[in-house]
Amino acid sequence: MEQENEQVRIKNLLKENPKGLTIEEVSKKLSLNRATAAKYLNSMMTSGQADLRELGRAKIFYLSQRLPLTNLLSLSSDLILILDRDQVIQEANEPFLSFFNQTKNDLKGRTIEQSPIAPHFTKNYLVAFKQALEGTEGAFDVYFDIRNDQRFFRMKLIPMVFEGGGRAAVIILEDISEMKRYQLELEERIRERTAKLVETNDALLTEVEYHKRAEEALRENDAILRSMLDATPVGVALLVDRVFKKVNDSLCGITGYSAEEMTGQSTLILYPDKDIFDRINEELYNPRDTKEVRMLGSRIRRKDGEIIDVIISLSPFDPQDPDSGVTATIQDITDRKRAEEALKKAKEQVVLLTSVTRHDILNQLTSLRGYIGLMKKQKIDEQLMEIIRTEETIVETISNQIIFTRDYQNVGVQPPDWIGVSDIIRTVRKSIDIGSVSVHIPRKDLEIYGDPLIEKVFYNLFENSLRHGGEVTEITITTSEKEDGLIIKYADNGIGIPTGEKERIFEREYGKNTGLGLFLAREILAITGIGITETGETGRGARFEMTVPKGVYRLTNEQKIISTSA
Q1: What percentage of the chain has pLDDT greater than the value 70?
Q2: I need a surface site. Which of 12, 102, 311, 358 has the fewest CB within 10 A?
Q3: Higher per-residue pLDDT: 169 or 222
Q4: CA 290, 291, 293, 298: dihedral to nearest 10 degrees?
């Protein structure tokens, strides 16, 4: 306890002195002897709480400003696994879990030998993991075939120390599949070429002629590689310090510059606006800081002044040599962007056309209702009156279907957003006459991520309770959190839904004016993966359960839901 208190004092002192302090300065300011101050500072440095720099003979200690491990994991597109000194899995990032088809609950807390991923890691891997835990770095190429997803990786083993001082090892799998396949293809070509050279070598009479033929073979290989690069429709360039060193024909075609005009020029020639150029370089890959491949959509200016849309991808030319530059690929997506814009405009025109058409049809139905009303006032026999009533029902059905198309065309048009459940219910209560029915709503801080039309879901549930539930006097909305997500229950104390109709009520063709509304409700919820089912008992009221997956709901006060109703 005394050591913890002293370390807290030292930490607070270092916070007040961000430029750092020597052991003597810490000792003097906190009235500690020099040996004790040195012991605590070294302990904090071992646990990662403090860092050290040397200024002449003086050792300056200052608070560590390392990025939290969870942030580093979320930023990396590589597959990352972290083991403690007992080879127990402590952390795995999302790319690792996705590739091996696992969840964190499947892996965390288990030794790697007893985990579901054990069959993919041989004893040689485990030996290398152990060496990393003992402080020895390692790196080698590996191959995995997971669910017919065949990939090559560069496995890097990095010793690490947890904040508490415990040893750990970071396993980083960098996807090199494309590079490896290209390398294997190139090696195969080289093997073929070498075999030809060996055959030719037997016929050479002198050493001079042998070297001459070898040079010719090397030049031919270079020509083949150049031909392959020029044949691809994707622009390729070698950049060193943001300067074009080599470019292929496709890049010249995309930019409008010749190879001679681009070689030796800064990439700034594609970005006359310096601010955009700086932003692009900040967001893209810096070979001196990381080996991560980065991709970014951008717009560049061709030599003729035309602005085009492109996707830029940068990767290290030689991951072991940061001075070797980066390989850049540029793909022209201008036509695709134009097609997307045209499709968007066409969709807007279709929506406008259907809106006008729907308005005209509803106007005609209004007129038809008027004529039917006039006919009903005439003196006609009961048989003809029955026909008129049937026509009236048909008109009403057509009107409901037309109105349904208006609601359905808007599903998924607007992007989903976080919406307060209690706010939705209060809005619905104001827009519908519920009479004396009491309504119990869930906690105010619950939000779900859904389509903006989600208000119509609760509107339809309320309307069905009031229209078809019989003598409904109470409606209750409650929430409960399960292991796989959140359940929102909507229940009334009416007559309920017959057992054989619990699924049919969500069909579009279902009768009693309920099918369209509940069909639309299910479609709206499905936009963000929310399901809805009817689970009530006949005669004891209707009960609809909405299953909200994890990540699609949240509490604004960040407290856990424990089966609530308010």
Answers
A1: 74
A2: 12
A3: 169
A4: 40
Residue type, 60: I
Q: By the 8 A CB rule, do 420 and 446 touch?
A: yes
Per residue in 81-123, pLDDT (tens digit) is 888 888 888 888 888 888 888 888 888 888 888 899 888 888 8
Average pLDDT, the chain: 78
Question: What span, in angstroms and rounded, lies between the C-alpha atoms of 38 and 33?
Answer: 9
217, 468, 504, 538 from 495: Cα distances, Å: 87, 8, 17, 6
Q: How far is CA 370 from the centre of its chain?
A: 55
Confirm or reject CATH 3.30.450.20 for domain 232-332, answering yes or no.
yes
How confident is residue 539, by pLDDT bands cut at 50, 70 and 90?
A: confident
Structure-token pair, residue 183: 């390398």
Closest CA to 555 of 456, 418, 451, 450: 418
List of E strands, 323-463: 326-332, 417-420, 438-440, 446-450
Whole-angstrom distance, CA of residue 64 vs CA of residue 20: 11
Residue 452 phi, psi dihedral angles, 5° rounding: -55, -20
The DSSP result for 436-487, as a single string, is: T-EEE---TTEEEEE-TTHHHHHHHHHHHHHHHSSS--EEEEEEEEETTEEE
Thinking of the domain 417-555, which architecture would CATH place it in? 2-Layer Sandwich (3.30)
pLDDT, tens only, 256-284: 888 888 888 877 787 766 666 666 666 55
CATH number listed for the domain at residues 69-175 = 3.30.450.20
Per-residue confidence band for 543, with pLDDT thresholds at 50, 70 and 90: very high
Q: How far apart are CA 279 and CA 291, in angstroms?
A: 19
The predicted structure's pLDDT at residue 290: 47
* pLDDT, position 545: 93
Look at residue 431 and give its three-state secondary structure.
Answer: helix
> What HEC string does 481-543 produce?
EECCEEEEEEEECCCCCCHHHCCHHHCCCCCCCCHHHHHHHHHHHHCCCCEEEECCCCCCCCE
User: How many other CB atoms are found less than 10 A from the CB of residue 448?
Assistant: 23
* CB burial readout 78-95, b (16+ within 10 A) else e: bbbbbbbeebbbbbbbeb
Q: How many whole angstroms separate alpha carbon 95 and alpha carbon 77?
A: 6
Burial call 203-230: b when 16+ CB within 10 Å, e when fewer: eeeeeeeeeebeeebeeeeeeeeeeebe
pLDDT in tens, 477-519: 999 888 889 999 999 998 888 888 888 888 876 654 444 678 8
Pick the CATH number of 2-63 from 1.10.10.10, 3.10.20.740, 1.20.1070.10, 3.90.1720.10: 1.10.10.10
Query: pLDDT tens digits, residue range 19-36?
Result: 888 888 888 888 888 888
